[in-house]
Amino acid sequence: MSSTPYKQELPPPGGFGRVHYERVPHKSMISGKTIALAMGISYTIGFLAVKQAAKDRIRDQRETKSAQNALQPFLLAERDRTLLKQMRKNRDYEAELMK
């Protein structure tokens, strides 16, 4: 049938190699010190950014309050002027009504 003779498969001379079944831990790409340093740097940058944002917010609030204080006399004068105009209209209306 076949021209090649039958050959039994046997283990290699000296036997098979050792079977590795122990856990092989992976090699870490980044050390713990590097991670801690990166976290420290990022926390510091975040803290400084929050601190700067708070300063900016306070500066903006101070500027807004200053503008309100500067405009307050003009707004009061405008309100008083409108009140006087309305009182004059009321007086003229009452004078016309009482004729």
UniProtKB/TrEMBL annotation:
Localized where?
Answer: Mitochondrion inner membrane
GTP-binding as UniProt keyword: no
A Gene Ontology term for the protein's cellular component: mitochondrial inner membrane
State the membrane topology: Single-pass membrane protein
> Is the keyword Electron transport in the record?
yes
Keywords associated with the record? Electron transport, Membrane, Mitochondrion, Mitochondrion inner membrane, Respiratory chain, Transmembrane, Transmembrane helix, Transport, Ubiquinone
- Source organism, top-level taxon: Eukaryota
The record lists the membrane-crossing segments as 30-50
Q: So what does this one do? A: Complex I functions in the transfer of electrons from NADH to the respiratory chain. Accessory subunit of the mitochondrial membrane respiratory chain NADH dehydrogenase (Complex I), that is believed not to be involved in catalysis.
Subunit-structure text:
Complex I is composed of 45 different subunits. Interacts with CARD15, but not with CARD4. Interacts with STAT3, but not with STAT1, STAT2 and STAT5A. Interacts with OLFM4.
Entry similarity comment: Belongs to the complex I NDUFA13 subunit family.
Q: Please identify the protein, giving its name as recorded.
A: NADH dehydrogenase [ubiquinone] 1 alpha subcomplex subunit 13
The source organism is Aceria tosichella
